[in-house]
Amino acid sequence: MARKTFRSFLTAILVMFLYTRECVVAQEPVHVDSHIQVAVDLVQLNVAVTDRHGNYVTGLHPGDFFVQEDGIQQKIATFAEGNEPANRLAEAASSDIEVRRVAGDGEATGKEQYGSRERLSEGDLRVAVTGANVFILFDTSNYMYRGFVFAQDAISDFIRSLESADRIAFYSYSRDLSRATHLTSERSQVLRGVRTTVAGDDAALYNCLLLTVKDAAQYSGRKVIVVFSNGPDNASVVPPEDVAELAQSAGIAIYMVCTRQAQLEPISTAVFERMTAATGGKAYFAKTWINEQQAFASIRDDLAHLYSLSYYPRQNSNRGWRTITVKLTSERMKNYHVRTRNGYRLQVSRFPKVQDAMTTSPH
Q1: In this structure, are residues 248 and 278 in contact, taking their beta carbons and an 8 Å threshold?
Q2: What is the spatial distance between Cα 223 and Cα 216, in angstroms, rounded to a whole number?
Q3: Is 202 in contact with 234 (CB distance < 8 Å)?
Q4: Fewer CB under 10 Å: which end of the chain, C or N?
Q5: Cα atoms in the 13 Å half-sphere on the side-chain side of 158
Q6: Which DSSP state fits 348?
Q7: Measured distance CA(214)–CA(233) in Å, rounded
Q8: Assigned domain for 191 exists
Q9: Domain co-membership, 17 together with 75
Q10: Across the chain, what does the average pLDDT equal?
Q11: Nearest Cα to 168, choosing from 152, 155, 178, 182?
Q12: How far apart are CA 141 and CA 126, in angstroms?
């Protein structure tokens, strides 16, 4: 009995000791210098301007465009029309901004640091003048048993006509993505990739489109993805909204050429139209192989008539989704239609730095 009582006494002493040590540790100050680094890079926009009849409006100047990000007017840094080289317009700078950051304990402290730029660097100018990189994604699923050769012909003609593209990549998809030809300026190599494709399995369009967007995002300059789809997606696990947001944030325009078979599915039709519009591209629904060729020709013309604008974002504490609005300044242009991506998500990186570790001694 006495031995049992003694063990209980020792247990109580140990609990009190650990509790006291925990309190001492909790009272020790912890010095944490936490920085949030925000990537404030050159934001590039591909802008199409058409009149009420759908004809492209050419000959516009930088002063004709009014660009806002989250309602904040932006200064255009570079400007180009069609295949012309980009011109540097003005110096763009960003400065450090004091904002409220929610720390782990709920206290708002710290500073968000934006990379400061004195002027538009030569490297950024090279990015702005880089020609179009076009990624073609071809549906080779089991939906494609009909009209497979006609689709290959339409894509091949499109590749031959792409004078505005510096480099072209050709991918195909069914359940998995096949990178038949990586980004290259050799048209013959891309055409060989088209001719060697074969029809296969179920269609995982959104899975494979997401992988294509990630590939395209690694490159600078104008980036475009052209998708040929012959039916709805029946094998993806990735939602189309995630694909569209990533493409918007990376500045990648998505164009889609869909057959009559794809148009028979109203949900897919709505998704295709919504996704392409959000990224600044367009969706086409072709009833015949002749319409397919016409759709590809329209995409080619669109790429040749785009205005390329770029800017450095001005001071803005929003670290999430940023909305982009592009308007025309002249009253005589009020009936013109402007098409571009409608925003992007800022990429934020946190790098906590602990200066003094918690090394409290019980003594």
Answers
A1: yes
A2: 7
A3: yes
A4: C
A5: 33
A6: E
A7: 19
A8: yes
A9: no
A10: 78
A11: 182
A12: 39
Residue 284 domain-assigned (yes or no): yes
Residues 250 and 312 in one domain: yes
- Region 221-247: mean pLDDT is 92
198 — pLDDT class (breaks 50, 70, 90):
confident
Overall number of domains in the chain = 2
Percent of the chain beyond pLDDT 70? 71
Report if residue 360 sits inside a domain.
Answer: no
Within its chain, how far is the Cα of 12 from the centroid?
60
Q: Pick from 245, 244, 249: which is nearest to 227 by CA?
A: 244
Handedness of CA 274, 279, 280, 281 (dihedral sign): negative
- What is the token pair recorded at 206? 């959104």
Which pTM value belongs to this model? 0.75
Find out whether 23 and 281 touch, Cβ atoms under 8 Å. no
CATH number at residue 308: 3.40.50.410
- Whether residue 78 contacts residue 125, with contact meaning beta carbons closer than 8 Å, is answered with yes
CA distance 289 to 147: 8
Mapping DSSP to helix (H, G, I), strand (E, B) and coil, where does residue 44 land? strand
Q: Which two tokens stand for residue 238?
A: 């990735």
139 is in which domain, residue-wise? 41-92+127-348
Kindly state the tokens that stand for 323: 């909305």
Indicate the helix (H) or strand (E) that contains 248. helix 240-250
Cβ partners under 8 Å of residue 244, min gap 6: 254, 274, 275, 278, 279
